[in-house]
Design brief:
With 150 residues, this protein is mainly α. The chain has 9 helices and 2 strands; from the N terminus they run βαααααβαααα. A two-stranded antiparallel sheet has the order 1-2.
């Protein structure tokens, strides 16, 4: 396995939930449920809850307060912070951020070579305590410092 050379912000990035996919339906249902009054939640259709992964039978024995906590928990677990957006993470979201920083470096100094760009990123990166080197390489990229070190 290759180790990371640098890391970038790749957590809690907002991304749209695409229309027509099951996640979009789940997000819509969860946010509809969380906006309901306690009175309305008492008479919720069990099939609607099943589409969200919430167990209707368990809710029936624990009441509306428990159901509302389960809805909120499911929103947090799925990261659907609105009906249209969710939090995403991972290398596929960090790579464009690093690419953007490289574009900024090249805009500041168009004649930079790949080696100079790597050096600027590596020399300005900051190690994150408690994270193994294998997972972070030189550390967290710091775009402003990289630009200032050119």
């Amino acid at each position: 396995m290759n180790k990371a050379e640098v890391v970038a912000n790749d957590i809690w990035i907002a991304a749209p939930i695409l229309p027509g996919i099951p996640e979009k339906t789940t997000a819509e249902i969860l946010h509809e449920l969380v906006a309901m009054s306690d009175d309305d939640l008492q008479f919720i259709n069990p099939d609607l809850l099943k589409k969200t992964g919430i167990n209707h039978d368990f809710y029936k024995t624990n009441g509306v307060t428990f159901l509302r906590s389960q809805i909120i928990s499911q929103i947090q677990t799925t990261k659907f912070f609105t009906v249209a957006y969710m939090h995403v993470d991972g290398a596929s979201f960090a790579a464009p951020i690093v690419s953007e920083v490289i574009a900024q470096l090249l805009q500041a100094q168009p004649l930079l070579t790949p080696r100079q760009i790597r050096r600027a990123l590596f020399n300005s990166a900051k190690r994150i305590s408690g994270i193994p080197v294998e997972q972070q390489g030189y550390g967290y990229i710091q775009p402003k410092i990289a630009l200032l070190k050119l």
